[in-house]
Amino acid sequence: MSSHRLLIHSARQAVLVVSRGETVLRGDAMKHVSILEEDGAIGISVVVGRDGLIKAVGYDAAIQKEYSKATFDETVNASGMCVLPGLVDGHTHPVWAGDRVHEFAMKLAGASYMEVHEAGGGINFTVDHTWAASEDQLYADFSQRLWRMLKCGTTLVECKSGYGLDVDTEVKMLKVIDRARKDVPIDISSTYCGAHAVPKGKTAEEATEDVINVHIPKLKELMSAGDLTVDNIDVFCEKGVFDVSQTQRILQSGIDIGLAVNFHGEELNYLGSAEMGAKLGAQAISHLEEVSDEGIAAMAQAGSVAVILPTTAYILRLKQPPVRKMIEAGVAVALGSDFNPNAFCLSMPLVMHLACVNLRMSMNEALVAATINAAASLGKATTHGSLEVGKNGDMIIVDAKVGASDLSAGWAQ
């Protein structure tokens, strides 16, 4: 007799997303998702084993026959419902202290992102509060945010540091992220973003040297000792912050210690950062509101994933990133919430909805971008982002009238 953790049965629909081991979808393939529909009165079952991995996905009758002598810790009757892989949030800044609600009035009055920054707001405002907060204070707020993400269907999330800027506070933030890996039932991809802004009293070049010669060696030391887990490196490549050359040097230092490149590019101004990132073999580049045709072509050739953040263009009133052009060029498009003090969104279904309305993505494209492609942006598409045997048993069950498309339309519960 075998023993398993979970049996879901009688589902009306199971959205596998992919079913042949695909680890990313591009172009027209983003329009097509793999779906199992109930066959008459026969629903769909999913089995999750003791190791947390999916053991079987199929019709009830076949699963009941194969597992007739099995026991399950939990059984869920999903009659009339839709089962999907857990959503993947490809870009967040969730560890910080001090809100920036007061900046909203400035933005409504017409202040730009950089004007808010130059007036003492923005990232440096959050840095001051994060410096002053204890690790326990940061963890308490961070863990609450993760639980709220879970309630919105996110089961894998990318989490950045970046509100410390000095090495000690950056490490404090990364330790908070590590602590949550153990305590909160959500999977995390951890990103070092010490080059998120130029610290007060430093030039961009001085900050670049500090990151390369102080921060990166400290991360290497802690990672080698098993005291810290970091997956990715990020830089805010932007006019008035870190230029393309400085960004490239920092990212290369991260590559040298085994970190994947996943950085902010072409958000407010075109700098050629997408082309640079593609040459470095970037796993992912975020924002891309100002990306050039040449940058899109370079990303497509390099296989770099575009992580699109609909909330950013919405809250900052920026022009929309050219998503349709990216998809047509063969760039894999993923989605992220960009959760941060400036864009307070924890819901990937809302992000998917904005992607459909404002970026003209189809509902299937938005679902792909929030599952398998977002997992690919984090190097986790072999374990997350679809309902396939051998993958993590991270699932959401949606009470939807017409199926998975309800999620992007905003009607699913």
Overview of this structure, please?
The protein has 413 residues and is α/β, with parallel strands linked by helices. It is built from 16 helices and 16 strands. The protein has helices at 60-66, 103-108, 113-118, 122-132, 135-151, 167-183, 204-224, 244-256, 273-280, 293-302, 310-316, 323-329, 348-359, 363-369, 372-377, 405-409; strands at residues 3-11, 13-17, 34-37, 44-48, 54-59, 71-77, 82-85, 87-89, 154-160, 187-195, 232-235, 260-265, 284-287, 305-308, 333-335, 395-398. The strands form 3 sheets. It has an 8-stranded parallel sheet with strand order 8-9-10-11-12-13-14-15. Helix 7 (204-224) runs parallel beside helix 8 (244-256) and helix 9 packs parallel to helix 10 (293-302).
Task: Please sum up the structure shown.
With 413 residues, the chain is of the alpha/beta class. The chain contains 16 helices and 16 strands. Helix 5 (135-151) crosses helix 6, helix 9 (273-280) runs parallel beside helix 10 (293-302) and helix 13 packs across helix 14 (363-369).
Evaluate the radius of gyration. Answer: 21 Å
Mean pLDDT score: 94
Q: Portion of residues in helices?
A: 25-40%
- Termini separation (Å)? 36 Å
Structural class: alpha/beta
The largest pleated sheet is described as: 8 strands, parallel
